[in-house]
Amino acid sequence: MNNLIISNNDYKTNYSSTQSIVIIAIFIGKHTIMTVAITPIPLIIIASIIIIITLLLWRYIYKLNNRTANIAIQLREFSQTLLATLNDQQRQQQTADHLLKENLAEKFALHRQRFDEHQLQSLQTLQTSILQGMTTAQQQLLETLKHQSTTIDQRLKEISGQVEKRLTEGFEKTTATFTNILTRLALIDEAQKKITELSTNIVSLQDILTDKKSRGVFGETQLSTLIRNVLPEKNFAFQYTLSNNKRVDCMLFLPKPTGHVAIDAKFPLETYRRLLDVSHDDPQHAAIAQQFRHDIKHHIQDIASKYIIANETADGAVMFIPAEAIFAEIHANFPELVEAAHKARVWMVSPTTMMAILTTARAVLKDAATRQQIHIIQEHLAHLAADFNRFQKRMDNLARHIHQAHDDIEDVHVSAKKISSRFGKIEKVEFEAISSAD
């Protein structure tokens, strides 16, 4: 149908094109006639030729239009015939579809009936199987329950026995635990008494440390304990008197170029406690810090002026601070004191750093003792070298004798082989002589 509509449109388009050509031909002929009226004879001939071509073209277009009209009529008749055929086929298809639907409905109903019958039979068979299975399962369940009840009774008896045993053991352990707790409580009471005594002793220690002289004795005692645990007795002296009649707490006798090192214990506890009792925001903090700074500087200058003597002691001295907290406070918040001590050649130490210094001093003393004994070691090494040379000569002589003995043994072995060969030849000669006599 769409093809027919397209053909009709093509016909209309051709017809319009034909009209356009005719109009152009008429226009050309009109102008040609007008031109002929005013032009010479040759142009008239050309115009006549153009008119003739136009007429021929008009005739051809006329025939083409007739043929196109005939084709359009034939196409219209064909389309009508085709529409009629399509309508017949559509009616036949509808009839066939209706018959097919009826046939499918009948077959579906038959199949549904058969399916329902098969489903009913299957349900009956399944119901019978389920009833049989439930009966069997019920019997098995009853047997299992009986067996489980018997097993559970036995297990409960065993558990009850174990529970009684565990309870008995638990009661025994609980009794032992309570006894242990009572013992520990008695020990705690004793420890509490000791703590009370210790607190009393601490209070007494605080009372002792409030006195400057007592603090000095405490620092000297701690210094003495550290030094005696590290260095031998001959390498230090306590309350040593110098040439300026000043007495230092301890003098270390180290080898040159270090020389004698003076150690003096200082314990600036009062100002440090006052410094801890006030906060940084307190107006008194600056004044107390200044007093603490002044006390430490005074100790540094005192040690530098008293215990550093040219050609008698080392070019530096040690200020021993028995409290690690005071030592840390100086290095953390008073760096100018550390710098002043370095300039004065006074080395501030705590118990921890004092142990490191003493360990280094012991290594220096050991190295000095080794250097003093080096000539003895060299003498023994010379004797050892002579002994080794003597051993080498004797070893060479022994090797030469062993080699000579080996050569002699080889010669004896060769002689033994020759003698054995001679005996063999003699025996052969005797046997041959006996054989010829026979």
Written overview of the protein:
- By secondary structure, this protein is α/β, with parallel strands linked by helices.
- It has 3 domains: 2-116; 213-372, Trna Endonuclease, Chain: A, domain 1, CATH 3.40.1350; 378-438.
- It has 9 helices and 5 strands; from the N terminus they run αααβββααβααβαα.
- Strands 1-2-3-4-5 form a 5-stranded mixed beta sheet.
- A hairpin with a 5-residue loop joins β1 and β2 (247-253).
- α4 (269-277) runs antiparallel to α5.
- The longest helix is centred in the first third of the chain and has 169 residues, at 41-209.
- It is elongated.
- The relative contact order is 0.04.
- Mean pLDDT is 76; it is low at 1-15 and 201-211.
Task: For the largest sheet, list the strands in their spatial order.
Answer: 1-2-3-4-5
CATH fold title of the largest domain: Trna Endonuclease, Chain: A, domain 1
Rounded mean pLDDT is 76
- Cα distance spanning the termini: 152 Å
Shape: elongated
> Strand fraction band?
5-15%
CATH architecture type of the largest domain: 3-Layer(aba) Sandwich
Counted beta strands:
5
Helix content: over 70%
Uncertain regions spanning at least 5 consecutive residues: 1-15, 201-211
By helix and strand content, what is the structural category? alpha/beta
Q: What is the CATH C level class of the largest domain, in words?
A: Alpha Beta
What series of H and E elements makes up the topology? Answer: HHHEEEHHEHHEHH
